[in-house]
Every structure is written in structure tokens, then in C-alpha cells.
């Protein structure tokens, strides 16, 4: 399988690195990158070919990965349209719907993906949606590529990618926000920066691993560390009084609504 990445940014680099770590040959990967500096970095770091020439890189590819900013996608897609020859197109550009991409690219062989930033350390999670024209073998190819940077799951309804964007796409920022708040509290209680960082990050990592390894609902796990009239109960009662959970749920609904809005805005023909 020969792969061409359109765009050599962080997510493309994460995928290239993940594929190489799995034993995939750099000689089968090509990157279209207009920046000479980035092209040199890609070649030096991964041994892949990088060129600004779109037609050359696309000619022998079986899979194209659109790893560019959403605002650039329409322009690039219109350039790609006349040189496509049945390749599978995988888009990791946020927000742009497959029907809009199909209109610009002139093909329905499109898989749209929503990865998240932990993919940079191969701990991401990616949701995928395939247009009906995509055959099972192509779905398998898309999944094998994206699974190089973490876990994957398929959605049958493209609209669910708005929910995915709000949950796992934006999710790392919510976690960082909560980490910031806990670190601030740690400072205020007299712990130094290193102590606060270790305590908070290890608590998140440990709690996540515990939840992942358990078959039980997280509410039950929470209940087990919440003794009646104890410190945890006091903290959780304070959060409930401030409607923290309702605020988080409302924020995620707002993120999903914004994802739908961006899909409308980015899908308009220029």
C-alpha cells in the first residue's frame, strides 16, 4: 500500500512515525509539503520523500491522506480532482463533511476521520466514517493507518462525528482544564509546582487506568472513594452545589453545535 500525505504537519508526522514503528517502509510513503524546511525535517526524521509537487506524489499512491487545515481543503481538493485515479482519500481535516469533499474531489472513495492530539504520542482515539461507495478492503486500509496512533472506532452516521468532535476531539482540552484547576488548588494548599504536577498527573493517569481495567461503571468506582461525611464527599457536594457536571455536559453540547456550524461554514463553495 503506497500512501501519500497531503500536508506534513504534526498529525501527518504522528501517523508516519506510528506506521514506521509498526514496520511500514518509509519508501512506501510520500509527503506533499510546500515548506522546504518541513520537507527536510520529514526526510531527516523519517526517511520519507517530501516534495511540493502534487501530481508526482499522487500518481502512484493508492491512499491519499488529507492532513491539511480545513480552510485549505477546498483549494487542495480542486487541484487533486483532475489527477485522482480511484485512490482512497482519507481526510483528517476537522469539520468538513464527506459530501462537500466529494463535490470538490469528484470521487466518493472518501473516509473522514476525527483523531485527537494524544495521537502525537500514539495514545489517541480516532473515529472514522466511510461514504457508502468505500469498499470493506478500503475501510480496512483506513483503519490500519489510523490505528498506528491509537484506538479506532467506526460510526455509521456522519452526524455522529460532531459528537465525537465534542467528546474526544476537544476532550484533551477539558482534561487539561481540570488538571489546571487541581494544580491551582494544590499551589493554594502549599504544595510546590513539582509536587502539584506529579500528584495531579499521576492521579489522572491512575484513575484512567483503573477505569479502563475495570468492568464496573465509573459511578461505582467514584462511590468507592467517597466515604460518608469524608473529604471526597465534601468536595463532590461542593461541585454539585456549583453544578459542575451540568456545566460540563452543557459545554460539550455547545462544542457539538459549533462543530455542526463549522461544517456548514467550511462546506460552502468559495
TrEMBL record:
Subcellular localization(s) per the UniProt record: Cytoplasm
Pathway the protein acts in: Amino-acid biosynthesis; L-proline biosynthesis; L-proline from L-glutamate 5-semialdehyde: step 1/1
Domain Pyrroline-5-carboxylate reductase dimerisation positions: 158-262
Keyword check for NADP: yes
Signal peptide extent: none
GO cellular component: cytoplasm
Record GO terms (molecular function): pyrroline-5-carboxylate reductase activity
Keyword Acetylation: no
Catalytic activity, EC: 1.5.1.2
Binding site for NADP(+): 6-11, 67-70
Reaction(s) catalysed by this chain's protein: L-proline + NAD(+) = (S)-1-pyrroline-5-carboxylate + NADH + 2 H(+); L-proline + NADP(+) = (S)-1-pyrroline-5-carboxylate + NADPH + 2 H(+)
This protein's UniProt keywords: Amino-acid biosynthesis, Cytoplasm, NADP, Oxidoreductase, Proline biosynthesis
All residue ranges annotated as the Pyrroline-5-carboxylate reductase catalytic N-terminal domain in the record: 2-95
Any one Gene Ontology BP term: L-proline biosynthetic process
Known role: Catalyzes the reduction of 1-pyrroline-5-carboxylate (PCA) to L-proline.
PANTHER family membership: PYRROLINE-5-CARBOXYLATE REDUCTASE, PYRROLINE-5-CARBOXYLATE REDUCTASE 3
HAMAP family with a match to the protein in the record: P5C_reductase (MF_01925)
Annotated family: Belongs to the pyrroline-5-carboxylate reductase family.
Protein name per the record: Pyrroline-5-carboxylate reductase
Gene encoding the protein: proC
Amino acid at each position: 500500500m503506497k500512501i501519500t500525505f497531503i500536508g506534513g504537519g504534526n498529525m501527518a508526522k504522528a501517523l508516519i512515525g506510528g506506521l514506521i514503528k509498526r514496520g511500514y517502509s518509509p519508501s512506501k510513503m510520500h509527503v506533499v509539503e510546500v515548506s522546504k524546511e518541513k520537507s527536510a525535517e520529514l526526510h531527516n526524521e523519517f526517511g520519507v520523500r517530501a516534495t511540493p509537487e502534487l501530481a508526482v506524489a499522487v500518481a502512484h499512491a493508492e491512499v491519499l491522506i488529507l492532513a491539511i487545515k480545513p480552510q485549505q481543503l477546498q483549494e487542495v481538493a480542486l487541484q487533486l480532482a483532475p489527477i485522482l485515479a480511484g485512490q482512497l482519500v482519507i481526510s483528517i481535516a476537522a469539520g468538513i463533511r464527506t459530501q462537500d469533499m466529494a463535490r470538490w474531489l469528484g470521487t466518493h472513495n472518501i473516509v473522514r476521520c476525527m483523531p485527537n492530539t494524544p495521537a502525537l504520542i500514539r495514545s489517541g482515539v480516532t473515529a472514522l466514517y466511510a461514504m457508502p461507495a468505500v469498499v470493506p478492503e478500503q475501510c480496512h486500509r483506513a483503519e490500519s493507518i489510523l490505528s498506528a496512533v491509537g484506538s479506532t472506532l467506526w460510526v455509521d452516521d456522519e452526524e455522529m462525528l460532531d459528537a465525537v468532535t465534542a467528546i474526544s476531539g476537544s476532550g484533551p482540552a477539558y482534561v487539561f482544564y481540570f488538571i489546571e484547576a487541581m494544580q491551582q488548588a494544590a499551589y493554594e494548599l502549599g504544595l510546590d509546582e513539582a509536587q502539584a504536577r506529579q500528584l495531579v498527573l499521576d492521579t489522572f493517569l491512575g484513575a484512567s487506568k483503573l477505569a479502563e481495567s475495570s468492568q464496573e461503571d465509573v459511578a461505582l468506582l467514584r462511590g468507592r472513594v467517597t466515604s460518608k461525611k469524608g473529604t471526597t464527599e465534601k468536595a463532590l457536594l461542593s461541585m454539585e452545589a456549583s453544578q459542575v457536571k451540568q456545566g460540563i455536559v452543557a459545554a460539550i453540547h455547545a462544542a457539538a453545535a459549533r462543530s455542526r456550524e463549522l461544517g456548514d461554514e467550511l462546506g460552502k463553495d468559495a
